[in-house]
Amino acid sequence: METRHITIQSALEKLSSFLESFLPILNTHMVHFYTEEIWGKLKSELQTELMAMNDTEITELPNDYLNISVSKPSHISPSLLQLMEDIFKHNLESLNVLDDLPSVWKQLDIKPLSSPIHFDKFMTVKKCHEVGALCDTVASFANYTASKLIVDLGCGKGALASMLSLNHGLYVSGIDAAGFNAHVEAGRQSMLQKTFKSHVKKARLTDEEEVDLSVRFRRSTLYLSNNFDIRPLIEECSEHFQQSFRHVGLIGLHTCGNLASTSVQLFVNSPESRFLCNVGCCYHLLDEIFDKNSNGQEPGFPLSSYLKSKSFALGRNARMVSSQPLERYAT
């Protein structure tokens, strides 16, 4: 664990130092290239090489970058190629701070679970893929940690919660800051249960024994802060579901802005939380401690003590740019 901590801090040091010289450009609006002469802040050799490229070569840069580890494009000049290689050396994979799921299962000796039924008729293809993948991952961690109660942060319409409940028999407490229509919620859950029972019957998954096919999902409208106490919620769920829960798993799919960092803080501060499985989004809505343009009362970045010691700030535009997948531009 100590070695892992050193690796992560070393990666933060390298990445933050590398980014600092580029942040003034990353946090620039397009119009500022004219009004503040941002173009002139680029190294002269980069300016020359970029101006010498045609439209097709410029358009192909994202694709060239994605393939730079296997081939070095001959049409890219030395300074630009060096910059692209330096950027590649500072991505998360190159910094050796990521583990893929198969390696995690192997390290923890976990046999991953899979869902027998997917609700493709109730979700878009993209949403169905996301919910299905996270559902199986959460269920595997829940089984490994013996956590029967799952707390879904920013649960939305409860698609992930319903999948976890129906496919894996887990109890789910959904938390969302926005209110919900109880009548619409009841209708949606009833429809899901009917569909699930139909799928189970067709697949003959219950020939040998009767299985409880009810949705074990309870929703609460709450505002989550950094000092949220999860214990009263566990007690309420124990009473509601008539079950005894001692610990929970924390999850979130598309936890927006500060909610992603709040979930990390909640996990660290709650001994009752056995695992955290979270997919954040909308990082442009994240409030920063050291960004002069952020004014949130509970900023979510940085959480790292090292970055705090540096008073490190990314800036809104830099977060906006980082949220855009290069693969989208490369196609």
TrEMBL record:
Q: Which residues cross the membrane?
A: none
One Pfam family from the record = Methyltransf_32
Q: Where is the Methyltransferase domain?
A: 126-287
What the entry lists under Gene3D superfamilies is as follows: Vaccinia Virus protein VP39
Name the PANTHER family on file: CGI-41 METHYLTRANSFERASE, METHYLTRANSFERASE-LIKE PROTEIN 25-RELATED
Protein's recorded name: Methyltransferase domain-containing protein
| Organism the protein comes from | Daphnia magna
